[in-house]
Design brief:
The chain has 197 residues and is α+β, with helices and mostly antiparallel strands. The chain contains six helices and four strands, in the order H-E-E-H-H-E-H-E-H-H. It has a four-stranded mixed beta sheet with strand order 3-1-2-4. It comes from Waltera intestinalis.
Length: 197
């Protein structure tokens, strides 16, 4: 048990260091934090509240919520990762956190950010959902997921071992069309990951 506790504390310390590399001003005060990133002209944001800002932000680096997975996928902002997540914050007393979180979520939504929040903020009763939770998967969802899985696996095989060529050189119009369809299939999993993100 002691060893697990020490390991967890070491991971937390490492994650806090990573947060401070992005924004050295983050502290353990209470407040609202802002995770933002821009890619291909699209602005993304996640607004959260914390009684201890640095600890809460560090938890995102080890978690499995939607925003946590996006941070793992895109990384934190750095000179060599300009599309990574930037970190900002504002201090507020604990009794103002719900109110201010809701205010900033509305403000960022109205400013054109694609929000990664699932609700309109607050920890109390009556939280409003702002992002659709995934519906129960049905038959067609399963087919679509199978297509995406096949796309990912075959694209991986071609990246490592294979090349695509047409039977005739120069290729016929039908062969060109077939090649374009195949290339689109190989990219299908990337498009799905972008939509999920």
């Amino acid at each position: 048990m002691n060893q697990n506790f020490r390991r967890a504390k070491a991971i937390e310390a490492k994650n806090k260091k990573r947060i401070l590399e992005v924004n050295p001003h983050v502290d353990e005060g209470s407040g609202i934090y802002f995770l933002t990133r821009t890619e291909d002209g699209i602005r993304y944001a996640y607004i959260g509240q914390a009684k201890q800002l640095l600890t809460r932000l560090a938890q995102h680096l080890s978690g499995y919520q939607h925003i946590d997975l996006s941070i793992k996928n895109h990384g934190l902002y750095a000179a060599d990762n300009i599309t990574g997540w930037k970190i900002g914050f504002l201090h507020y007393p604990e009794d103002k956190l719900d109110e201010m979180e809701q205010k900033y979520i509305r403000q960022y939504a109205q400013s054109g950010y694609q929000l990664r929040n699932k609700t309109a903020g607050g920890q109390g009763d009556g939280k409003k959902q702002i992002d659709e939770y995934r519906p129960v998967k049905g038959y067609h969802d399963g087919l679509k997921q199978g297509y995406i899985n096949a796309s990912r696996e075959i694209a991986h095989l071609f990246d490592l071992h294979l090349t695509v060529i047409t039977k005739k050189d120069p290729p016929t119009t039908h062969q060109k069309n077939a090649l374009e369809k195949f290339k689109a299939f190989l990219q299908a999993y990337k498009q799905q990951e972008d939509e999920d993100d």
